[in-house]
TrEMBL record:
Gene Ontology CC terms, in alphabetical order: mitochondrial outer membrane
Full protein name: Serine/threonine-protein phosphatase PGAM5, mitochondrial
UniProt KW keywords: Hydrolase, Membrane, Mitochondrion, Mitochondrion outer membrane, Necrosis
Compartments reported by the entry: Mitochondrion outer membrane
Protein family membership: Belongs to the phosphoglycerate mutase family. BPG-dependent PGAM subfamily.
Top-level taxon of origin: Eukaryota
Gene (UniProt): Pgam5
Annotated organism of origin: Heliornis fulica
Catalytic activity, as annotated: O-phospho-L-seryl-[protein] + H2O = L-seryl-[protein] + phosphate; O-phospho-L-threonyl-[protein] + H2O = L-threonyl-[protein] + phosphate
């Protein structure tokens, strides 16, 4: 529903200058800029924490976040914003990354919290959440996809560069949906802690994946997948 034709009211078309007016209004609704979406998985955290507030980053996780922040800063891009999951490990990762990107505003959202997006196919034996989780988390994560992953607004004049700090399940689901792959295949991908996934959304709505779970900027002994 983001095609220009879906954004105008065809019933208001002037009968005399119909085609010309329609073309003008369509052009007014067309996106002009490209969006660059950088999806960052949070760094390694304390798996023993019972509550979210106890699942803080490990010392290695803090190192990973520093490396990710340095890598993003080295790209020389003008980042517009950092949107992050409200969970502790994502928030802490964001705080460390943002030190390397001064002036970039941070926005917290519950939509990007970790969860069970959709039942994976084929199923796996090591991870079987309650069925209700797919209904609760799945609707929320799908809402995150629809809210954040779309072509640029027609009013946007310049290309944008946005960072999203969240979780492996969320990122993998978003990648499948953005590329129009069967979303049930999300669990076939694996993402390292602190990794960078880069999606490009063109003005015509086409999406390209430039990087998936990149941690090539980290020394081998700093790479984890917990």
């Amino acid at each position: 529903r983001r095609e220009p034709l879906a954004l105008i009211n065809l019933k208001k078309k002037n009968e005399e200058t119909g085609e010309e007016e329609l073309a003008s209004r369509l052009d007014h609704c067309k996106a002009k800029a490209t969006r660059h979406i950088f999806l960052i998985r949070h760094s390694q955290y304390n798996l023993d924490g019972r509550a979210d507030k106890d699942r803080t980053l490990t010392p290695l996780g803090r190192e990973q976040a520093e490396l990710t922040g340095q890598r993003l800063a080295s790209l020389g891009l003008k980042f517009d914003q950092i949107i992050h999951s409200s969970m502790t490990r994502a928030t802490e990762t964001t705080e460390i990354i943002s030190k390397h990107l001064p002036g970039v505003k941070k926005i917290s959202t519950d939509l990007l919290r970790e969860g069970a997006p959709i039942e994976p196919d084929p199923p796996v034996s090591h991870w079987k959440p309650e069925a209700v989780q797919y209904y609760e988390d799945g609707a929320r994560i799908e809402a995150a996809f629809r809210n954040f992953i779309h072509r640029a607004d027609a009013k946007q004049e310049e290309d944008s560069y946005e960072i999203f700090v969240c979780h492996a399940n969320v990122i993998r689901y978003i990648v499948c949906r953005a590329l129009q792959f069967p979303p049930e295949g999300w669990l076939r991908m694996s993402l390292n802690n602190g990794s960078i996934t880069h999606l490009v959304i063109r003005p015509n709505g086409r999406v390209a994946l430039r990087a998936l779970g990149d941690t090539g900027f980290m020394p081998p002994d700093k790479i984890t997948r917990t």
